[in-house]
Design a protein that fits this description.
This protein has 478 residues and is mainly alpha-helical. The protein is 45% helix and 10% strand. It is built from 19 helices and twelve strands. The longest helix is centred in the C-terminal third of the chain and has 17 residues. The radius of gyration is 32 Å and the shape is elongated. The structure holds glutamic acid.
Amino acid sequence: MRLRFAPSPTGAIHIGSVRTILYNYLFARQRGGVLILRVEDTDQDRLVAGAIESIYDGLHWVGISWDEGPHEGGPHSPYVQSERLPLYQGHAQELIDKDAAYYCFCSKERLAVLRAEQEARHELTRYDRHCRFIPVEEAAERAKKEPHVIRLKVPDEGTLAIEDLVHGHIEWQASTIEDQVILKSDGFPTYHLAVVIDDHEMGITHIMRGEEWIASVPKHLLIYRAFGWEAPPMAHFPSVLGPDGKRLSKRHGSTAVSQFRDDGYLPEALINYLALLGWSPGTEEEVFSMDDLVRVWKIEQVQSAGGKWDKERLDYFNGVWIRKLSVDELVRRLEPFVPAEWDRAVLKKIAPHIQERMKTLKDARELIRFLFTDDIGFDKRLLIPKKSDRLTTLEALARARAVLGEIEPFVATNIEPALVGLATGLGWSKGDLNGVIRMAITGRKVGPPLYESLEVLGKEKSLKRIEKAQELLAGGPD
Ligand code: GLU
């Protein structure tokens, strides 16, 4: 089995492309096959600087590797089409020699006029085969001097068909296809020519890609036919759709893989989520690691309808995978999301207590900030519980400070009964009292569990912050 993933470096690697490569990867891995990465950069006008690096980074981050490359140094340098131009040029020449292709000298202007006329007549816009009938020797002579492209001689009739592994039987009439360009005037192949030659030369046994390429298949089949090659089986995966049912794009927010990393998503979660966007295991099970997927994913279970992007579901999986991490691993993953000067020992102490409460790794910073800075400014009105008032709250703070001051050692298991007792003594709910103390020590309404927060912050700092809250509240009605 030889599979390939063939991104064009036309922008940051998109989430839909990751889903496509994931399926290729799973298919190859479960059959002991080879996965090839091939950079399809023949459309030189559309190249974006840094796009190739973004593809490498993205794949590395999600844990997908490929197996084979053309260069010394092995698998990590992929095939790059622009390095293979003589291969495509030689093959295009072969088709000319076989009379299966021809030189076309039509100017851009002529093609534009042709197109406009066809549009005005409400006809299919297509090349009118103007150069197809130039005598072969004459065309060969002109090709030495004049700019030209090479076009495929498309037959007037016949049916082209595939048995797609996802969509089943699909067929086209050859008569609907124009004499397509296979080699451009700059000597670069078109995508169609390059993809067919490469898939053939690389011995690709299964072509698996996004369904936006289905429309290109008849063009490819004609090229296979012209060479006398057999097209391998194909699978076209449904598009990843936005919440509005249209293809997921920048309109729906960022779709670049790097953005998910920067936003604090775990690669495990993204892979789990993406795997299920277009594939259903047929059971209630939904949490899958990459290894699980290699075992259970089946091409037969890939759906033909597109999966809709659902950020809440991705967040859900992110929470699931965050909770699966060991504390040490969680701390390691949090590393890029917290300032370098924050004490790692403290981070490690609090990490298990925020693990349940984070949707993304990015959430951690705000949740635990109070442990690393005294600058927790908040609006003093937030200290007073709904059914209470300033004076009662002041009293609660004073008594909390006294009670907490007595506790030795200052650990959550001692803090809890003391504060529960105090709430009862004050005639307050536990929630109201905890809310006041939480605001006093963290400056926020939500955070890690309160007793653990107090323990990790330490007695001295906790008491100081409560004292500060008292001063703040005593300072006047606003
Ligand atoms: N280069 C195409 C892309 O950017 C891939 C087409 C294919 O897989 O055949 O998506």
